[in-house]
Specification:
There is one protein chain. By secondary structure, the chain is an alpha/beta fold. Helices cover 31% and strands 23% of the residues. The longest helix has 15 residues. The chain is globular, with a radius of gyration of 18 Å. The model has no long low-confidence stretch (mean pLDDT 92).
C-alpha cells in the first residue's frame, strides 16, 4: 500500500474482499496441512477429527480461522474443543511437536511438506483447502489494483508453466499436488 514494493508474493489467498483493493495472478492451489509427529496415528480428514487435540497455529491466518470455526462446531455438536496454541514463527512449533507438547501444527502445506521431506520426523495428517469448505482456494501474486503490472506477472507465470520450469520448482519443494494448469487474473 505504501508503494515500497510493486508486487507481493507470499502465500496470499485470493478473496473477494482483497480483490477490491488488489489484482491477483494465481500460481498454486491454497492447501493447508496438519503436520504431526511421525507414526502418531493421528489422521485429520474432517473437522471433528481435531476435537480434543492440542493444535498449534499462527495468529491471524486462514488456518486459525478454520481451526476456531471447527472447534466451535465440535463443541456445539457435543465434542471436546480443540486446544489451540499460538506460535509466532512457523519453525517455533518443531520442538513442541517433537516433544509431544502439541499434537499437530496447522499451517501452509508448502512449508509443512518441505519440513516433512527434509526432517523425516513428521508427517502430513490431513490437508484442506485454505479457502474453507466451500471451494478450492488459490494462492496468487498481488499488485495494486489497476496499475497494469498484473498482466505482465500473469504472462510470466504462464510462460514458466508452459516451458516446464514451474513443474520443476513445485517438484523441488514437494508441492506438485498444488499445481495450477494455468495462471488466471482475479479469479477466486
Amino acid at each position: 500500500d505504501s508503494g515500497e514494493a510493486d508486487a507481493f508474493i507470499s502465500n496470499v489467498t485470493v478473496t473477494e474482499e482483497r480483490k477490491e483493493k488488489y489484482d491477483f495472478s494465481t500460481y498454486r492451489l491454497d492447501t493447508v496441512a496438519f503436520e504431526t509427529k511421525k507414526d502418531s496415528g493421528i489422521q485429520i480428514k474432517e473437522p471433528k477429527d481435531v476435537a480434543g487435540l492440542k493444535v498449534a497455529v499462527s495468529s491471524g491466518t486462514n488456518q486459525e480461522a478454520l481451526l476456531v470455526k471447527w472447534s466451535e462446531q465440535n463443541v456445539a455438536a457435543g465434542l471436546e474443543p480443540t486446544d489451540i496454541t499460538y506460535y509466532q514463527n512457523t519453525t517455533d512449533y518443531y520442538l513442541p511437536l517433537a516433544s509431544g507438547r502439541i499434537d499437530a501444527y496447522f499451517g501452509p502445506n508448502p512449508s509443512s511438506s518441505f519440513h516433512v521431506a527434509q526432517a523425516g520426523e513428521t508427517e502430513i495428517a490431513g490437508t484442506f483447502s485454505g479457502a474453507g469448505d466451500a471451494l478450492q482456494g488459490e494462492i496468487a501474486v498481488l499488485t495494486k489494483k489497476d496499475n497494469g503490472l498484473i498482466t505482465a506477472v500473469n504472462e510470466a507465470i504462464n510462460h514458466v508453466i508452459e516451458n516446464g520450469t514451474y513443474a520443476q520448482v513445485l517438484d523441488r519443494w514437494y508441492i506438485a499436488n498444488q499445481a495450477v494448469n494455468t495462471s488466471v487474473v482475479n479469479q477466486p
